[in-house]
Amino acid sequence: MRNHTEPTVEAAFMNVQNAATYMGISVNTLYVWRHRRQGPPSFRMGPGGRVMYRRDLLDAWLVEQQKADSRSNPDLNPLSKAPQRRAPRRVTTNGVYGTAAR
Asked: Under a CB-based contact definition with an 8 Å cutoff, are residues 29 and 20 in contact?
């Protein structure tokens, strides 16, 4: 008998429990995100209307979340940009401070 290992097949679709484990969050968090329409795209499948997630869409959603975070995206980090200068304040004719006209 040969020592042959079968290739593992990763599921293309995951239920709520597996998707939560895959993303490292609680099932409750995933349900709350779904209810608020904030989380990754999901759909109902089958006669019982089981909530399912596509693995490729989970991965794409996670990448988008990473891009939107200033800690992982240097383009969004406010410390990587030069400070903006405020327009000098000028005294108007009636003695009230206002913004200088450009």
From this structure: yes
Name the token pair of 2.
């040969």
Which amino acid would we find at residue 15? N
Structure tokens at 60: 């794409």
Q: Which element (helix H / strand E) includes 57?
A: helix 55-67
Q: What is the pLDDT of residues 40-77, one digit of tens each?
A: 999 999 888 999 999 999 999 999 988 887 777 777 77
Q: How far apart are CA 69 and CA 79, in angstroms?
A: 13
Query: Strand, helix or coil at 17?
Result: helix
Predicted TM-score (pTM) of this structure: 0.62
